[in-house]
Amino acid sequence: MPPNPVRLATRAVIVHKHRLLLVNAWPAGRSTLLCAPGGGVEPGASLPDNLAREVREETGLTVRVGAPCLINEFYDPRSSFHQVEVFFRCAIVGAATIPEDWQDPEKIVSDHVWASKHEISELNVKPDSLATIAFENDHALSYDALEPIVL
């Protein structure tokens, strides 16, 4: 059996009023894991275009996609799921309010959390370096080595 292909995804680092936007990573409360909004890349569109679409679908927000700030990869040994994520710094264009009744068309994202750097330390957030990337003023590109995900 051929190995599963590596999935490419984009994620948005959106900091507004000293809070980072996080979304649930699993539908129907299957896990408490939170991550930056974003998702799988569709062929034929640039990484920034894919990310702007994903953020709009998951949150209703419009963003301007900036520079990449993190490359992260993770692997689920139970399913052989391997994903490489490119995180981009993003700025909100227009209102920063997510309607309470916002519906993700894929019905995965059902929870949005604006968390301060301190609050993130109390949450189940991946990747581990996300708070550092979001709240440090260093605009260098970082890389997180392969991280196994265990739920």
Q: Which geometry do the CA atoms define? A: globular
Largest sheet: 8 strands, mixed
Count of discrete alpha- or pi-helical segments spanning 4 or more residues? 3
- How many angstroms separate the termini? 26 Å
Radius of gyration: 15 Å
Strand content: 35-45%
Task: Determine the mean pLDDT.
Answer: 90
Structural class: alpha+beta
Extended strand count: 8
Helix content: 10-25%
What order do the SSEs take from the amino end to the carboxyl end, as H and E? EEEEHEEEHHE
Low-confidence stretches: none
Account of the protein in words:
The protein is of the alpha+beta class and about 150 residues long. It has 3 helices and 8 strands. The chain has helices at about 45-60, 115-120, 130-135, and strands at about 5-15, 20-25, 35, 40, 60-75, 80-95, 110-115, 140-150. Strands 1, 2, 3, 4, 5, 6, 7 and 8 form an 8-stranded mixed sheet that branches. A hairpin with a 4-residue loop joins strand 5 (about 60-75) and strand 6. The longest helix is centred in the middle third of the chain and has 13 residues, at about 45-60.
